[in-house]
Design a protein that fits this description.
It comes from Roseibium album. Pfam families: PDZ, PDZ_2, Trypsin_2. This protein folds into four domains: about 110 residues, Trypsin-like serine proteases (Thrombin, subunit H); about 100 residues, Trypsin-like serine proteases (Thrombin, subunit H, Beta Barrel), CATH 2.40.10; about 90 residues, Pdz3 Domain, CATH 2.30.42; about 100 residues, PDZ domain (Pdz3 Domain). The protein contains ten helices and 30 strands. The strands form six sheets. The chain has a seven-stranded antiparallel sheet with strand order 7-6-3-4-5-9-8. Strands 24, 25, 26, 27, 28, 29 and 30 form a seven-stranded antiparallel sheet that branches. Strand 10 and strand 11 form a beta hairpin. The two termini are about 50 Å apart.
């Protein structure tokens, strides 16, 4: 559910005094300063929009499993038989009795003729019955047209006798931090409630999903407001209230709304297909930190670092490689890693797009034909190896606080390393080393150093030496864990 708090706004009136000597007297004159003012009243706006906002009530049948614990009594006690018979009977009755669980939320009408209502997926998830309660007391049974867990959106449909009051989506990209907004919803089941606040921030990532770019607001949002609209001062829906940060469960002034731009595309697909249809690039990415940027000789930390490429995916077919940094997608700069999933998801399936990557310091343009993202898209398949066992002892050395060795059958068995993982194995890490700070552990396998493949400890030493000669302060390692999952890790080398 989604709560928020309206901050207390205090306006300070400053007075300045100017002294003027007149006949031996000093005259003081107050100087008025301009004061920022919010809207005088939103009564007309609230009255006009209230009928388009609905309260969503749901009911779900669950099997009762409320077992009652039996008191502990000594064996042979005269109460033992009585308690066993009583509590066994009570627990049997409870186990067989189904219960009705109800919940409340909010929603709003976007198509009055068709009876289309928008709410959050978590408001109606698992419900057996969904009822839309309108401002005039009308109650209509709602059916689910489609849901999307990744953006927490749901589209419902009711059958009204006459067209319903509806609201329009606005341009969420045009809002600015400090703009006034108004929320209408059903907090704590109280019914239609209006709150006003400002946009506190934009493009917030709260780690709720791969496409997070929430509008943050201090308009009071509480339990039951989820799925309700966030309006601008022209009465357009610029967000859908969906989450809060609250240690107590009540509003503390930090609430989040799904931007209208994000919602509109998802809602359109749910209405048309009953499901979402997103573009898929087929890469695993990670953030480009300042250390990674320095190790790649990048002037600034930006883009999305490709940590892995899915076999037979669009990126693999277009020859995008692990270690590439995607800096531009379909004509748009990728400033941060988290922007790329949204860009890809919003792009039409089957479209050929230009992807610009940084590869070993050079910009490379690659054309990729996007495919459809499936919920169960397979991960990279493992590959069996036919290599003969290595008879001689593995070569070892110490680099960057790590004891390294050539990967042989004995070490594979010792660290449970999959057969398709290749590279140089880390057998030990010094506790006070930079490698330890980066959480490199024994059993990790170094596949690349500075985007150059390595097979022996000597290879690692050679590449580290080149970096030192070039004045680099860190080395970018491509590491695989024993199961083959890879990640890029920058390790300091200045003290080596």
């Amino acid at each position: 559910m989604a709560p928020n708090i309206v901050r207390r706004r205090m306006t300070r009136i400053a007075f300045a005094a100017a002294g003027l000597m007149l006949g031996g007297m000093i005259a003081f004159q107050p100087v008025q300063t301009a004061q920022a003012q919010g809207p005088v009243s939103v009564a007309d706006l609230a009255e006009n929009l209230g009928d388009a906002v609905v309260n969503i009530s749901t009911a779900q049948t669950v099997q009762g499993r409320r077992s009652v614990p039996m008191p502990q009594v000594p064996d042979g006690s005269p109460f033992q038989e009585f308690f066993e018979e009583f509590f066994n009977r009570q627990n049997k009755d409870n186990d067989q009795a189904p219960r009705r669980v109800q919940s409340l939320g909010s929603g709003f009408v976007i198509d009055g003729k068709e009876g289309i209502i928008i709410t959050n997926n978590h408001v109606i998830e698992g419900a057996d019955e969904i009822t839309a309660n309108f401002n005039d007391g009308t109650q209509l049974r709602a059916e689910i047209i489609g849901t999307d867990e990744k953006t927490d959106l749901a589209v419902l449909k009711v059958e009204p006798e006459t067209p319903l009051k509806a609201v329009d989506f606005g341009n969420s990209d045009s809002i600015r931090v400090g703009d006034w907004v108004m929320a209408i919803g059903n907090p704590f089941g109280l019914g239609g409630t209006v709150t006003v606040g400002i946009v506190s921030a934009r493009n917030r990532d709260i780690n709720s999903g791969p496409y997070d770019n929430f509008i943050q607001t201090d308009a009071s949002i509480n339990r039951g407001n989820s799925g309700g609209p966030l309006f601008d001062m022209q009465g357009n829906v610029i967000g859908i209230n969906t989450a809060i940060i609250s240690p107590s469960g009540g509003s503390i002034g930090i609430g989040f709304a799904i931007p209208a731009k994000t919602a509109m595309r998802v809602i359109g697909q749910l209405r048309e297909f009953g499901e979402t249809r997103r573009g898929w690039l087929g890469v695993r990415i990670q953030e480009v930190t300042d250390e990674i940027a320095e190790s790649l000789a990048m002037s600034e930390a930006m883009g999305a670092l490709v940590a892995g490429v899915t076999d037979d995916g669009p990126a693999a077919k277009a020859k995008i490689e692990a270690g590439d940094v995607i800096i531009r997608f379909d004509g748009r700069d990728v400033e941060e890693m988290r922007e790329l999933p949204r860009m890809v998801a919003e792009t039409a399936i089957g479209k050929e797009v230009e992807v610009v990557v940084l590869r070993k310091g050079d910009e490379v343009k690659i054309n990729v034909i996007l495919e459809r993202l499936e919920e169960n898209t397979p991960t990279e398949a493992s590959v069996e190896t036919d290599e003969e066992p290595v008879e001689e002892p593995a070569a070892k050395s110490e680099v960057l606080g790590m004891m390294l060795a050539e990967l042989d059958d004995q070490l594979r068995e010792q660290f449970s390393i999959d057969a398709d993982v290749t590279g140089v194995v880390v057998t030990e890490v010094k506790p006070d080393s930079s490698a330890a700070e980066k959480r490199i552990t024994a059993g990790d396998v170094i596949k690349e150093v500075a985007q150059e493949p390595v097979e022996t400890p000597t290879d690692v030493e050679t590449e580290i030496g080149k970096l030192k000669d070039d004045g680099r302060r860190s080395a970018l390692l491509l590491l695989a864990n024993p199961t083959g999952d890879v990640r890029f890790v920058p390790v300091r080398i200045e003290d080596e």
